[in-house]
Amino acid sequence: MLTEILINLFERDLSRLEEEIMAYDTEAAIWRIPEGIKNPAGNLALHLCGNLQHFTGAILGKNGYVRQRELEFSTRDVPRQDLINMIGVTRRVVLTVILGLTAEDMEKTYPEKVFASEMSTGHFLVHLSTHLNYHLGQINYHRRLTK
Hints:
The chain is mainly α. It contains 7 helices and no strands. It comes from Chitinophaga solisilvae.
């Protein structure tokens, strides 16, 4: 049951992330940093892909992904199509890993301590979904602000 819910949420919200990036009028607007904004949409998209690929692909899926978190926020001017491709790869990784988890896996403690206390894998995946949604809202605001 939780697996189906998570698949639905990640599929929906990663599709929305692609739609938001595609909705920018220009590629330059994806990287614009208006006053009062810390991270442009491009960096938030890179961050979301790195975050999800690390915590699902590398930790749960053991696929060898190596995260470079500092580059998620310092890299600039990645072409829109490259961002879309990264989101697509991230979607496939996340959905494949989640589909491979059993109900028992969801109840197990997430294998890496991320916060002050341990939590189940299912709980942490819900957290990752809300993290995605939080930044998705920021990207939506950024896009409308830069029009």
